[in-house]
């Protein structure tokens, strides 16, 4: 048992970060084809009753939010900032371009890359989505438009997915004689099943939000509205449900589930024990007990 706890503690220690508040920063100073111009992904921290929700908006409308080197670099810088931000309790990932979430790789840019550059870029993209997946707070993907190839892989890296009923999605890489290379071959079978994931990848099938809900790929499907942001609005409602809860508890619950899914059941129990140990000494836990006794709403600070 002691060995299991030691193993679990090592897994947890790699992912526990200090909860510090960071200020909003500029992610790039000048336009650059590799570094980006800092506008490929826009960050909005909501206020009022939605304070604690951080919205990441994909913003390459002319290229259908496809993954360029600039977008990947800008997004990576943003994630490095957010993962240490105590003020971000829930992250919502959306597109600022109606009708599209993300079209996957920027094939125009990819065409001009050498074999070595292509391999390096795919490795960098995979790393970006791992960073997104490993953010300590819940991440909700709002699919109000097409999520194809790498776009769907990005959504799979999020904890929860909402989709408009007419949003098209699919891992279509085999149409281009390649495979999903940013984690799709690993995440899809874990979310669905190996056999179903293989069918969807082998056939490069494209399906809509309603079919995605039937498959179990998205948590919620909603009828698209005139503003073309129905999935985003649903994601905000989900985020608002998460906000009142203890942020340290939510983060540790995410970590326990994510790490526990990668190991055998007994090690998973040990991971849960280690994660629980992280919340015992917190001020938030005492606040929760006090609020219950005093019959009031708790005020959690992430401490």
Automatic annotation (TrEMBL):
- Subcellular localization, per the record? Mitochondrion
Matching Gene3D superfamilies: 2-enoyl-CoA Hydratase, Chain A, domain 1, Lyase 2-enoyl-coa Hydratase, Chain A, domain 2
GO BP terms: namely: fatty acid beta-oxidation
Q: Could you give one GO CC term from the UniProt record?
A: mitochondrion
Alphabetized GO MF terms: enoyl-CoA hydratase activity; RNA binding
Keywords, A to Z? Acetylation, Lyase, Mitochondrion, Transit peptide
Please name the SUPFAM superfamilies in this protein's record.
ClpP/crotonase
Family label? Belongs to the enoyl-CoA hydratase/isomerase family.
Q: What is this protein called?
A: Methylglutaconyl-CoA hydratase, mitochondrial
- Give the source species: Drosophila albomicans (Fruit fly)
């Amino acid at each position: 048992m002691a060995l299991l706890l030691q193993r679990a503690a090592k897994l947890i220690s790699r992912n526990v970060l200090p909860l510090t508040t960071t200020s909003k920063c500029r992610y790039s100073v000048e336009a650059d084809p590799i570094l980006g111009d800092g506008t490929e992904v826009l960050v909005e921290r909501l206020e009022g009753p939605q304070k604690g929700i951080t919205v990441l908006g994909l913003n390459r409308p002319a290229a259908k939010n496809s993954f360029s080197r600039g977008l990947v670099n800008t997004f990576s810088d943003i994630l490095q900032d957010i993962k240490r931000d105590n003020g971000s309790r829930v992250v919502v990932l959306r597109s600022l371009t109606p009708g599209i979430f993300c079209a996957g790789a920027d094939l125009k840019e990819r065409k001009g890359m050498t074999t070595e550059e292509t391999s390096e870029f795919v490795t960098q993209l995979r790393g970006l989505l791992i960073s997104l997946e490993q953010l300590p707070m819940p991440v909700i993907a709002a699919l109000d438009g097409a999520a194809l190839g790498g776009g769907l892989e990005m959504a799979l890296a999020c904890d929860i997915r909402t989709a408009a009923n007419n949003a098209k999605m699919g891992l279509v890489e085999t149409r281009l004689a390649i495979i999903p290379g940013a984690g799709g071959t690993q995440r899809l079978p874990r979310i669905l099943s190996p056999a179903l994931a293989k069918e969807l990848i082998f056939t490069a099938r494209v399906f809509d939000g309603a079919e995605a809900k039937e498959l179990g790929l998205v948590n919620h499907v909603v009828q698209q509205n005139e503003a073309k942001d129905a999935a985003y609005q649903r994601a905000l409602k989900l985020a608002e449900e998460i906000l009142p809860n203890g942020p340290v508890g939510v983060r540790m619950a995410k970590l326990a589930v994510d790490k526990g899914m990668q190991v055998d059941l007994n090690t998973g129990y040990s991971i849960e024990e280690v994660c629980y140990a992280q919340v015992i000494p917190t001020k938030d836990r005492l606040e929760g007990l006090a609020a219950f006794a005093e019959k009031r709403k708790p005020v959690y600070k992430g401490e």
